Amino acid sequence: MTQTRVRRGRPGHSLDTLLVVAVAVFNERGYDATSMEELAARLGVTKSAIYHHVPSKVELLRLALDRALDALFAVTEEPAAVTGRAIDRLEHVVRGSVRVLAAELPFVTLLLRVRGNSAVEEAALARRRDFDRIVTDLVRSAEEEGDVRPDVDPAVTSRLLFGTVNSLTEWFRPGGALSADALADALVATTFEGLRARP
């Protein structure tokens, strides 16, 4: 029995390959402006080859957003994020978030562009708010422990920290002269200096 080959281009793709291409196109054109026909053309397959992996474009979006969010939440569950002084746990989460951004840049970029235009986007935004609460609670705990200056609201501090982290999607390019760890070092050095309470 001969294997049936996809009529247009290469036979088959893994779900991971499909996601990578879909996210690239979503970021270039916008999710709403991207059709399944365009994704199929970019992959060099038929639409039915895509539907072999996912039932809809919406499911591609959900999987992509979950990939970024799952990686971010995984950082908050690492041992260094759950034990020790809050300021050290906060630094760990910030450093880990920079590493996630570098490793999953297109996925994080897509996540940051979500505006709540569908149930999938609303769910992603709700998870982002949960992540923000974790960071805010760490800032508040660090303030209570005397390690963070008390004159700035913890929620504001959290937004400023992660506003800085999120802005990296605009200019950081993996594989360049600056590694993710060096980038995390620079971000922590500049932000935590102003964050720490003065003795």
TrEMBL record:
Pfam families in alphabetical order: TetR_C_24 (PF17932), TetR_N (PF00440)
GO molecular function terms attached to this record: DNA-binding transcription factor activity; transcription cis-regulatory region binding
DNA-binding feature ranges: 35-54
Domain HTH tetR-type: start-end pairs: 12-72
Domain of life: Bacteria
DNA-binding as UniProt keyword: yes
Record keyword Transcription regulation present: yes
Keywords: DNA-binding, Transcription, Transcription regulation
Stored PROSITE patterns: HTH_TETR_2
Record PANTHER family: HTH-TYPE TRANSCRIPTIONAL REGULATOR BETI, HTH-TYPE TRANSCRIPTIONAL REGULATOR RUTR
Protein name: TetR family transcriptional regulator
Lineage of source species: Bacteria, Bacillati, Actinomycetota, Actinomycetes, Geodermatophilales
